[in-house]
């Protein structure tokens, strides 16, 4: 097991693909043979962003997306064929980057976290741990434990970690592990590379 605490002061910022907002980039991975890191070389990406006003989502062909509201409430995602209800915080929705989506805000701005992956390159999962004792079996792969609302404490196997507000613990596992929430609220993003 390798653990790395990612400090919010070191996160980078980048524009949405459609230019409509700004991501806070927390962690990502790109193809090793890519001449530069861009959307074409992306394997996966974990980021947060405010949604301040209704508007369209970026078109991201070949990208699978998971999203969760961590601050605020009242977000709906609407496409021509279906709706994704994120009105309650910590609800995960899954959709493809090809889908034409427009946001609707029922109660003002929200903050969301996104976990994206190139289809066929990685399997991803995103969930919230909200009650002390909530636990999750972690498989081999990369796991990101994000503290959206203040410090949270977790236990990995027999070791305890404190994660500051908006900090992230990156956990790289070669084998299975057990994660338990000790205090606070945590968002867990899990990535298993397929390539």
Automatic annotation (TrEMBL):
> What residue intervals traverse the membrane?
none
Give the matching SUPFAM superfamilies: RmlC-like cupins (SSF51182)
InterPro entries per record: RmlC-like_jellyroll, RmlC_Cupin_sf, Uncharacterised_HutD/Ves
Tell me which domain of life the UniProt entry assigns to the organism this sequence originates from.
Answer: Bacteria
Which PANTHER family does the entry link to?
A: PROTEIN VES
**Protein name as annotated:** Environmental stress-induced protein Ves
Organism ancestry: Bacteria, Pseudomonadati, Pseudomonadota, Alphaproteobacteria, Hyphomicrobiales
């Amino acid at each position: 097991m390798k653990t790395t605490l990612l400090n919010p002061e070191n996160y980078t910022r980048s524009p949405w693909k459609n230019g409509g907002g700004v991501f806070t980039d927390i962690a990502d991975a790109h193809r090793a043979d890519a001449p530069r890191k861009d959307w074409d070389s992306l394997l996966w990406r974990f980021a947060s962003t405010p949604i301040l006003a209704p508007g369209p989502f970026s078109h991201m062909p070949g990208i699978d997306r998971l999203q969760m509201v961590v601050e605020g409430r009242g977000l709906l995602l609407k496409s021509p064929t279906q709706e994704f209800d994120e009105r309650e915080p910590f609800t995960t929705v899954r959709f493809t980057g090809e889908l034409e989506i427009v946001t609707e805000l029922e109660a003002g701005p929200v903050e969301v976290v996104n976990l994206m992956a190139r289809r066929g390159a990685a399997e991803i999962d995103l969930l919230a741990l909200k009650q002390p004792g909530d636990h999750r079996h972690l498989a081999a792969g990369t796991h990101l434990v994000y503290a959206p609302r203040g410090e949270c404490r977790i236990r990995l196997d027999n070791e305890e970690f404190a994660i500051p507000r908006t900090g992230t613990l990156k956990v790289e596992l070669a084998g299975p592990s057990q994660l338990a929430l000790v205090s606070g609220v945590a968002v867990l993003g899990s990535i298993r590379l397929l390539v």
